[in-house]
Automatic annotation (TrEMBL):
The chain crosses the membrane at residues 57-78, 107-125, 137-157, 177-199, 264-281, 287-312. This is L-cystine transport system permease protein YecS. PROSITE patterns: ABC_TM1. It is a multi-pass membrane protein. InterPro entries: AA_ABC_transptr_permease_3TM, ArtM/GltK/GlnP/TcyL/YhdX-like, MetI-like, MetI-like_sf. GO terms for biological process: amino acid transport. It comes from the Bacteria. It is found in: Cell membrane. Residues 101-309 form the ABC transmembrane type-1 domain. Keywords: Amino-acid transport, Cell membrane, Membrane, Transmembrane, Transmembrane helix, Transport. The gene is yecS_1.
């Protein structure tokens, strides 16, 4: 056993000549012997160093290439006569186009609202300890994600072929003594499209909500249960707000995709935006300008939803990030402020350089004249 402060047998201890020492002067490096007559480094040595910013030439090259391709694309849009921008301007606010756009938004709102409500219920079933509820939700998700949305809408639209009448009555019999409807009169084209879109969306919304709930740390559940918070309040006040951070981005992607996905309802002759555009360009033989009208309206609503998504995500990021991401207005204001300050600094540096040059010239003149 070796006591603290004594050297072990056979080891004379550290060699004072070989051990590095720190000199008394500030700035002396470790392992060098200090010299009393050596003057210290000048105090302004660090200030005299020039800091050179690293240049990323590949980034500049790729940026120039992207700008060139963008300019080429814009130039082709403006100069190519086959785009027929006069036809585009004539139909962009056409009443038939606006009516189709209104139907597109109606189907999107109904299917998204119903899909996320039903998807939330299915997500709770998938997380349930009940084997029956879990299996039922899993089977629903498997079926509606396996069948294309176009096929689903056609099946609902032709449901009268399978079941001529629908109603309530004695179970496991065809006796609808309580209430009975003709299937063809109950399920219209709009109802079949809305039902197909809603049920299809619910399967994907369920997985989005379930993934967001599973992203919450298990300790949050345990801490809330330890405090005696009821299960319902625990879920809606503690777990769900934290899960929203993971749910919101995917949910907005689904909404944006659903706006464009409603174009499949043309199969049941619903005059939504894409169907209306098809009818018009088949009559006028101008497909490209009319398709550009549809693209423009889809782009407008995608942009609006993207802006809303940014601010919603920014709000939910308040508890997880030290500094929130700047808004577009803040980015613009900071860029303008930095540019303005750079101009002021450049003017001030020019004045200082001019003043320094005059001083050096004066000192040189005085030293030349002085005997």
């Amino acid at each position: 056993m070796t006591l603290t402060g004594t050297a072990p047998p056979g080891n004379p201890g550290p060699n004072p000549e070989a051990s590095p020492e720190i000199g008394p002067e500030v700035g002396t490096e470790v392992g060098t012997e200090s010299r009393p007559g050596t003057p210290p480094a000048p105090a302004d040595h660090a200030q005299a160093l020039t800091v050179v910013r690293q240049r990323h030439w590949w980034r500049w090259g790729v940026s120039v290439l992207v700008l060139f391709l963008l300019a080429q694309f814009i130039w082709s849009l403006v100069t190519t006569p086959n785009y027929r921008w006069d036809v585009f301007a004539r139909y962009i606010f056409d009443p038939a186009i606006l009516a189709g756009l209104r139907l597109t938004l109606e189907l999107t709102a109904v299917s998204i609202l119903g899909g996320f409500v039903l998807g939330g219920v299915l997500a709770v079933f998938r997380l349930s300890d009940s084997a029956v509820l879990n299996a039922a939700a899993a089977g629903y998700i498997w079926f509606f994600r396996s069948v294309p949305i176009l096929v689903q809408i056609l099946i609902w639209y032709n449901l009268g072929y399978l079941y001529p009448t629908l109603g309530l009555g004695t179970p496991f019999t065809g006796d609808h003594w309580l209430v009975e409807f003709q299937t063809t009169s109950l399920i219209s084209a709009w109802f079949a499209a809305a039902l197909g879109l809603t049920l299809h969306q619910a399967a994907y919304s369920c997985e989005i909500i379930r993934g967001g709930i599973l992203s919450v740390d298990q300790g949050q559940w345990e801490a809330a249960a330890a405090l005696g918070i009821p299960a319902g309040r625990r879920f809606f006040r503690i777990i769900l707000p934290q899960a929203a951070r993971a749910i919101v981005p995917n949910a907005f992607n689904e909404i944006i995709g659903q706006i464009k996905g409603t174009s499949v309802v043309f199969i049941v002759a619903l005059p939504e935006l894409f169907y209306t555009v098809q009818v018009i360009y088949n009559r006028s033989s101008t497909p490209i300008p009319l398709l550009m009208v549809a693209v423009a309206w889809y782009a407008v609503f995608t942009t609006v939803l993207s802006v809303i998504q940014f601010y919603v995500e920014r709000r939910y990021s308040r508890g997880t990030q030290r500094t929130l991401p700047p808004t577009p207005w803040q980015r613009t204001r900071r860029a303008v402020t930095a540019w303005w300050r750079s101009l002021d600094d450049r003017d001030g540096r020019s004045d200082r350089d001019a003043g320094t040059g005059n001083t050096e010239h004066t000192e040189h003149t005085e030293s030349t004249v002085r005997p």
